[in-house]
Automatic annotation (TrEMBL):
<dbReference type="InterPro" id="IPR043141">
    <property type="entry name" value="Ribosomal_uL10-like_sf"/>
</dbReference>
<dbReference type="InterPro" id="IPR047865">
    <property type="entry name" value="Ribosomal_uL10_bac_type"/>
</dbReference>
<comment type="function">
    <text>Forms part of the ribosomal stalk, playing a central role in the interaction of the ribosome with GTP-bound translation factors.</text>
</comment>
<keyword id="KW-0699">rRNA-binding</keyword>
<comment type="similarity">
    <text>Belongs to the universal ribosomal protein uL10 family.</text>
</comment>
<dbReference type="GO" id="GO:0070180">
    <property type="term" value="F:large ribosomal subunit rRNA binding"/>
</dbReference>
<dbReference type="InterPro" id="IPR001790">
    <property type="entry name" value="Ribosomal_uL10"/>
</dbReference>
<dbReference type="GO" id="GO:0006412">
    <property type="term" value="P:translation"/>
</dbReference>
<dbReference type="Pfam" id="PF00466">
    <property type="entry name" value="Ribosomal_L10"/>
</dbReference>
<protein>
    <recommendedName>
        <fullName>Large ribosomal subunit protein uL10</fullName>
    </recommendedName>
</protein>
<dbReference type="GO" id="GO:0003735">
    <property type="term" value="F:structural constituent of ribosome"/>
</dbReference>
<comment type="subunit">
    <text>Part of the ribosomal stalk of the 50S ribosomal subunit. The N-terminus interacts with L11 and the large rRNA to form the base of the stalk. The C-terminus forms an elongated spine to which L12 dimers bind in a sequential fashion forming a multimeric L10(L12)X complex.</text>
</comment>
<keyword id="KW-0694">RNA-binding</keyword>
<dbReference type="GO" id="GO:0015934">
    <property type="term" value="C:large ribosomal subunit"/>
</dbReference>
<keyword id="KW-0689">Ribosomal protein</keyword>
<keyword id="KW-0687">Ribonucleoprotein</keyword>
<dbReference type="InterPro" id="IPR022973">
    <property type="entry name" value="Ribosomal_uL10_bac"/>
</dbReference>
Length: 171
């Protein structure tokens, strides 16, 4: 890899560190190519990505970034999992690490906040952005459906009473 390629990689990594909601660092020693492809596919499904980069280049890219404290985690065979959604990458990596003990979570960052292994697991336990939006929408929609039910209830009751009266007159 020549100097220009290294500069390009450092620039790309810098963009990743600045724009991602969460970056998770893990050791992947012993993972097969198929297992790594499976992890990448799972990350793509949630809008995230997986990147293997030289630790030295990643440390250079971290200089001056809010998540610079993550540089201590970059030792050995590391993989970076990241996503714009602050929870998605952590959920996928945590779930994958539970199924495959060759992937070991080291930590990561969420914005300026450094995360240790327990911190990544705590972030993974949080509801995702889509789940939060769905719960907010259901909370907003519940009063409207209750009002609609309350408005329709008297008419339904009157219709029931009229139906009963018709049956009595017919009999």
């Amino acid at each position: 890899m020549d100097r220009a390629q290294k500069e390009k990689v450092v620039e790309e990594l810098g963009q990743i560190f600045e724009s991602s909601g969460v970056v998770v660092v893990a050791h992947y020693e012993g993972l097969t190519v198929a297992e790594m492809q499976d992890l990448r596919a799972q990350m793509r499904e949630v809008g995230g990505s997986v990147r293997v980069a030289k630790n030295r280049l990643a440390k250079i890219a971290l200089q001056g970034k809010p998540c610079e404290s993550m540089a201590d985690l970059l030792t050995g065979m590391t993989v970076l999992a990241y996503s714009e959604d602050p929870v998605a990458a952590a959920k996928v990596v945590d779930g994958y690490a539970k199924k495959n003990d060759k992937l070991v979570i080291l930590g990561g960052t969420m914005g300026e906040t450094a995360l240790d292994q327990a911190g990544v697991k705590a972030v993974a336990a949080m509801p995702s952005r889509e789940e939060l939006i769905a719960s907010i929408v259901s909370c907003i929609g519940a009063p409207a459906s209750n009002i609609a039910g309350a408005i329709g209830a008297p008419a339904s009751n009157i219709a029931g009473i009229l139906s009963t009266l018709e049956e009595r007159e017919a009999a």
